[in-house]
Structures are given as structure tokens and as C-alpha cells.
Amino acid sequence: MSKNTILHKANTRGHANHEWLDSHHTFSFANYHDPKRMNFGVLRVLNDDVVDGGMGFGTHPHNNMEIISIPLEGDLQHKDSMGNVAVISQGDVQVLSAGTGISHSEQNKNKDRAVRFLQIWVLPKKQNVTPRYDQISIGDLEKKNELYQVLSPDPEDSGVWIHQDAWFFMGNLEEGISKDYTIHKAGNGVYIFVLEGDVTVDGQALNRRDGFGVWEVDSIQLKADTNTKVLLMEVPMHLA
């Protein structure tokens, strides 16, 4: 099978510093616009955010978007128009299916340290669904030197679920460990985002915060060049 790839080095991402918020955008977002970097399939937003102590995003609306938040450090306070009040921390994954419409706020719970988290938006395969909130701790799912699932389309499967034929896996791999990843659904691609360390994916060397998309393949191979943490996001390359 032929293969297509796209490489996004960490230093080529869009960058916005609002004093209280330092954000790097893999894809076009807010004031950062690059027509060549609008999305990877239905993966529309991948923001790498740092929010100062006591600061955050005030109440704002969304609709018809699957929004996933993955804290990397610190604690994030969530409130929404459905009445959910929750804190997500490193080791948690949060999902918000905006559907017909929802308002929410996200604040750094701590005043004395920053919170670092990934904000990810995925276009849904169903429009105007009933809004939904969920969060899980992935501590029970994590397996050293394995790729472990944290998101899928199936409410009965491991991790959170969204209204899209997407699968997210994370890996905490020691130097020298190799892993194969098999695509779940024909027509999907996979976008690898390096959280820490260095990894080679199908011959492409990647470093911290690099992104690498691969599609028109059945599987990919990862090899940890140093101790590394990665996020794999398998998504449809086209809306159904």
C-alpha cells in the first residue's frame, strides 16, 4: 500500500503568548492561520497550552465538536452549562461532546503554578447530538512500554469515547523499545505527537513536540530513540 506523510516540526507551529496563556498551535487556530495546516483529516485542533496560576478560559460556547483535554502537568478546573464541575489532572483525559451547544470554562485550579495541557478538537460524524461530558483517570490503563488506548468510538471500550471513528493511544516507552500500531479502520490515518523524548516512526526521526501524520497505510512502527512519551491519534481522513 502506498503511504502519504506530513511532518510538523515543533518550531514550525503557530505561537500565541497572551501573558497568562502560552499556546502552540499545530493547526490553524484563532489568529494563527496557515491554509496548508488546517487539519489532519477530522483532527481539527491540537493546541499545546500553558496557563498561568489562577488564570484560564472564561465561559464560552461550542457546538458540533468533540473536544478532548489531556493535562500534562497541574490541575484544570472545569465548569459547564450542564452543571458539571470537575477537576482534571495529569493522568486524566476529559471529553466534551458539544453537539447542539454547550458553554464551559476551564481554569487553572492552582494559583502558585502553571497548568499544561493539550486541547484537541475532532470533527464529529454526527451533527447536533445531545451534549455530553466525561472524564477518566488513565492510570489503570497505562502499561509501561506498551501503547494503551485512551479514546475510541465505543462507550464500552477502554478510555473515553467520542462521536467519531477515532482511536487515541498513549505510550510511555523506554529507549530501544519498538512497537507496531495497526490501523483500526480502512481510510483512517494516524497523527503521532511526541510529548517527551525522541522516537522514529517508519524511518522518520521525531523529537519533543514534533507531529507526524501518516495515511494510506495498514500499520506503522515506532522505535523509542530515548525514553519517550507519545500520543497517537487515529482519525478518518475525510468526513463521512
Structure description:
This protein is an all-beta fold and 240 residues long. It folds into two domains: 14-137, Sandwich (Jelly Rolls), CATH 2.60.120; 147-236, Jelly Rolls (Sandwich), CATH 2.60.120.10. Helices cover 0% and strands 55% of the residues. It has strands spanning 4-8, 14-17, 21-25, 43-51, 56-62, 66-73, 75-80, 85-89, 92-97, 102-108, 115-122, 132-137, 147-152, 160-161, 167-173, 178-182, 188-196, 199-201, 204-206, 211-215, 219-224, 228-236. The strands form four sheets. A seven-stranded mixed β-sheet has the order 1-20-17-22-15-13-14, with no helix packed on it. Strand 18 and strand 19 (204-206) form a beta hairpin. The protein is globular. The chain starts with a strand and ends with a strand. The model has no long low-confidence stretch (mean pLDDT 96). InterPro entries: Pirin, Pirin_N_dom, Quercetinase_C, RmlC-like_jellyroll, RmlC_Cupin_sf. It holds the Pfam family Pirin_C_2. Residues 12-122 form the Pirin N-terminal domain. It comes from Sediminicola arcticus. Residues 150-235 form the Quercetin 2,3-dioxygenase C-terminal cupin domain.
Keywords:
240 residues; mainly beta; Jelly Rolls; 2 domains; 7-stranded mixed beta sheet; 0% helix; RmlC-like_jellyroll; RmlC_Cupin_sf; Pirin_N_dom; Pirin family protein
